[in-house]
Fold:
Amino acid sequence: MKRLIATLSLLAMLTACQTSSTKENPLLTESTLDYQAPDFSKIRPAHFVPAIEEGIRIQLAEIDSITSNTAAPTFENTVLAYEKSGRLLARATSILSALVGADGTEELQKIDEETTPMLSAHHDALLLNEKLFARIKAVYDQRSSLQGEDLRLTEVLYDQFVHEGALLSAADKEALKKINSEIAVLQTKFTNQVNAGTKEAAVLVDKVEELDGLSEEAITRAAEAATAAGHKGKYLLEQTNTSRPGYLADLNNRDVRRRVLEASLSRCSGGDSTNTHPTITRIAALRAEKAKLLGLPNFASWALSDQMAGRPEAVERLISQLAPACRAKVANDVAELEAFAQKTEGKDFKLAAWDLDYYAERLKKAKYDLNEADLKPYLVLDSVLKNGVFYAANQLYGLTFKPRPDIPVYADGVQVYEVFDQDNTPMALFYTDYFRRPTKTGGAWMSNFVQQSTLFGTKPVIYNVCNFEAPAKGAPAFLTSSDVETLFHEFGHALHGLFASQKYETLSGTNTPRDFVEMPSQFNEHWMTDSVVLRHYARHYKTGEPMPQALIDKMKAAATYGQSYALAENLAAVTIDMAWGMLPAGQTVSDVDAFEREALARAGLDFALVPPRYRSAYYLHVFAGGYASGYYSYLWTEVLDHNIYEWFAAHGGLTRENGQRFREMVLSRGNTAPVGTFFTNFTGLTEPDMSSLLRFRGLTE
Structure:
């Protein structure tokens, strides 16, 4: 999931010669569309820089008004005034962030590169402003007179300022500003390098026979990709954002599988402009220097200090609790898989990493009489979304959805729905952007065009972005089971945003710690296999018949199959992330690959056949996506979500009563209290129960 922190640097007022273009810039005023939705019929790339410059100028003037106020600091004239500032800037940057991720043309990438240093400098100009912090601190020190969201907002803002360096000396603040600026530029560079390097890592295949095992749709897409890249008559196998592309499970040609995986794992590591190793090592060094300035031993200590986990030791404990069971299960599963492969390949056959998914899919078929091809006719995007994702939201929370084709969108294929509450009150707009395009960053995420706030009278305008394979012309949009999981996951984030009911944007919706924000999304994944929901959406694309019960039974029997590999790749990714975050200032990494290997070996997570979900060279979450020393959040929140689901299961499962309780006690609360209290109040557990994760992944006896 992506989140942009919007704000930045001192610039001159717009000149007279810009007056006409200013009047025509739709970003400079609130949209007149329903819900203040962005009017993409009018927004052009040329509008962003002037709007951001003007937004910065206005917010700096607003801050100057706060700091020059001769009246004693109060909540109203300081904290509330700060909360009200920066509206134009937030509007422009939220839209730019969305477009750069979902439709990042070369023009938009250049705009992003141009504005990133401006926004970084502006961020520091606010959070390192001594006069502003002094006033916020004065209100904070007298907070006993405050209540509810006023108190929480004051505490959150004070903690944020301290976290970002407000207590540093003037000299250290200047040093921090330089570090933050360079990091911001390097993170944008890293994103662009990874996007380019991932495209370059696509594997060109000469003959269609080499693609034996792939579906007709996949072969057609490979041919179209090759033609678009100037190789008409050949086939181009494109890479995904993760290490192991899904089609490795289908390719019969072992050498092509090898080429694909080797290209994936080695991307962004060569000698060309997409080599991210220098970028990575510099970012890591700068982060360590930043932590040192802030009085902490390493970046991970700083990054975790405002999270549920609190300290790196808590993450290390999580890894150490999960790793032994994972190692044992991987060893058993690999031994079984190799023995299975040897039945057809000969007793001397040895599995390689590019064989894992291929033979795992065949063993799944042998053990459970089930593979992805069996499920495919029943997993069509339109039905999964409307009869699955939306249906579950209706059953649990009473929500209904109405298409809004009149709302302008930013790209072909994007759809908009208006969301209505259980009493039919209009509550939000929801955009869907599901198919891969050349200008889209890999992965899937949720964010807001408009944040909910009763202070501003705004309702949520939310979008989900995914990277599903577009259907062949005239064919249905089939999903894999992994795609279905992603659809439910991202909509879980959307629900967290849809149910926001806060006065202040800072406390609204998904503006919570990283290691809590992934819980609603992962919890929502459970409904994809709920018997009632599954039979409602899993219908044959030709006949409309529901998935046969026998096939559903096979799905459930195979539910934990391959989970050891999934956990292994995630634990490895967490370990790599934490290794970078634990580097002390002054320690440099000269060999990125060796650094990775050593970190995994120390943790006992150096699996020969299961590569990390992401290697450092293309690890967008960590080096550009806001999850530095935070990728553990997915496993941390998985524990929370399983605990919550077990409560649901014990109280009747998919019911409106349960959904309403979850909505009121968790999903609608935003960041109005320490988020751990929401979990405790809902489940009755004072501490998360780690064993639930092992049970759900089938790693316990």
Q: What stands out?
A: The radius of gyration is 25 Å.
